[in-house]
Design goal:
Layout lengths: L6 E4 L8 E8 L2 E11 L5 E11 L4 E3 L5 E3 L5 E3 L2 E4 L5 E5 L8 E4 L5 E4 L5
Antiparallel strand pairs: 1-2, 2-3, 3-4, 5-6, 7-8, 8-9, 9-10, 10-11
Length: 120
């Protein structure tokens, strides 16, 4: 289930400015394209498209708008907890690990796993 995007990134400095465009993304991959215009010997121009498929587990997640967004590997503080919700697996950690359901893990299919610390 790929989704077209119009995100444009600047390529690393290689002499000529080239734009890298994300043309498709899904849970574990994205397709990056560059278009280069070349001048032929007869004076005509032609475009050459190069594509790269980037593979990585958990590269994107479905955001609140139902679109693929790039995963962010970080926690944010919210009242009473810390949460990492910008990834395929969403985790919430209570400030007090001794409370029931202190760890909540939402799977990509919507199931919720809850646990807490039993001892250290």
């Amino acid at each position: 289930m790929a989704c077209l995007a119009q995100e444009v990134r600047q390529a690393p400095d290689s002499g000529a400015p080239t734009q890298v465009t994300v043309t498709a993304r899904a849970a574990n991959h994205r397709i990056l394209e560059t278009v280069t215009t070349e001048l032929a010997e007869d004076g005509s121009t032609r475009s050459r498209t190069n594509s790269i498929v980037e593979l990585a587990t958990g590269l994107h997640y479905v955001d609140e708008a139902g679109k693929w967004a790039e995963s962010v590997e970080s926690f944010e503080l919210v009242p009473g907890a810390a949460r990492a919700w910008k990834a395929q697996h969403r985790v919430t950690l209570a400030h007090n690990p001794n409370t029931p359901a202190a760890v909540q893990h939402r799977l990509p299919d919507g199931r919720l796993l809850s646990s807490h610390v039993h001892g250290v």
